[in-house]
Amino acid sequence: MHSRQFQNVFLTKILSDIDRRHEKHGHDPLLPLHQLERAKYMKLTSLRLTLFEFVSIVENACFMATTCLQLFAICFLDYGLFWLLETMSFHGHQETGLEVPAYVDLEIKGGGFVADVMRGIANAFRPLTQKSILDVNPCLPLPVKPDYAEYLIILLLCLLAWLILLAEPYILRTRHLIMAYFYPKRAKERGMFLYNMISEDRTSIFKFVRRRKRNEFNHTRNVKHTRNFTWLNNRFSCLIYMCSCCSCCQSTERCTICGRSLTLSNRNPCDTPGCKGVYCGKCFEKSHNKCCLCNRPVDYGDFSDVTEVDDSSDYSEKESFSERQYRKTCGGQR
């Protein structure tokens, strides 16, 4: 709220009121926006994102992806450990049991100290159990089945977090409505600042795009094809021609400057032979009905982009300043 430039790219009702008020005083209407301006300015209800909103979503998405990956790893390890123990227990219970190997029993009869010692030594080599089959079931692990409801809750929370992340930019746009309700003076000041900024950018954006198209046309016209491209063009000329015909049939003709789709009613092609420039009515009118590709910038009103300079050889035969002063002073003739 304290900055006039922060997120001040949305078209609000205040801007519409300012535009109508200026139009009543004889100014050109600012709305609706031109084709080149719609990429930068948008309505509050637009689904498109600004650059600031897009960067914010990318940062939050990276954090959410890391968190979801950690939760998935924890759940996967939990279920994987349960599956491993369950598999061990299942196959362990399928065993028939382990038989006690055969052994030789030594029985010592008689009494006395020596007999007792020998009897103790013989008992040490006897098995601990007298059963013929050993039961290993008490030694097998008994895993606890995981609670799948917890997995479902984690999944729902992750989906809710992603939903909040995607809806966050659109929810934050309501700050403009809240500011307009509680601080109408500040909202009008920001709206006036946006109006002036769009008015100033309207001319500069159009000139920038027009100069870029002119430079691209001059660059592609002077570039020579390499040998490899020429060889491929000669070999596949028929295929290239068929592809170009298909693309021409599918795509519509667009304005050279703003890229708007053209119809027969608003199509203004260049009269110069060989020039590919074609313009809509607004762009052609702003360029003083001149093509920006084959004409000089001065001809279509761009006086700040005068790139053509006269050759100094044209003035080689003109008299210099010293010669002119000498002729005026001495009365001589050149």
Description of the structure:
With 334 residues, this protein is mainly alpha-helical. Among the domains are: 104-133, no CATH class; 225-251; 254-308, no CATH class. It has helices spanning 13-24, 51-93, 113-124, 148-172, 174-182, 184-222, 227-235, 237-250, 281-286, 321-330; strands at 10-11, 42-43, 98-99, 133-134, 268-269, 278-279. A two-stranded parallel sheet has the order 1-2. It has a two-stranded antiparallel ribbon with strand order 3-4. The protein is elongated, with a radius of gyration of 43 Å. The two termini are 72 Å apart. Residues 223-229, 247-251 and 309-317 have low confidence and may be disordered.
Structural topology:
Layout: E1 10-11, H1 13-24, E2 42-43, H2 51-93, E3 98-99, H3 113-124, E4 133-134, H4 148-172, H5 174-182, H6 184-222, H7 227-235, H8 237-250, E5 268-269, E6 278-279, H9 281-286, H10 321-330
Parallel strand pairs: 1-2
Antiparallel strand pairs: 3-4, 5-6
Helix pairs in contact: 1-6, 2-4, 5-6
Task: Compute the CA-based radius of gyration.
Answer: 43 Å
**Unreliable stretches, pLDDT < 50, 5 or more residues?**
223-229, 247-251, 309-317
Shape: elongated
Portion in helices:
40-55%
Enumerate how many helices there are, as a single number: 10
Task: Report the β-strand fraction as a percent range.
Answer: under 5%
> Can you write the helix and strand succession as a string?
EHEHEHEHHHHHEEHH
Query: Which whole number gives the mean pLDDT?
Result: 75
Class computed from helices, strands and strand pairing: mainly alpha
- How many strand segments? 6
Subcellular location: Membrane
Domain Dendritic cell-specific transmembrane protein-like: 6-195
Region (Disordered): 310-334
Pfam families: DC_STAMP, zf-RING_DCST1_C
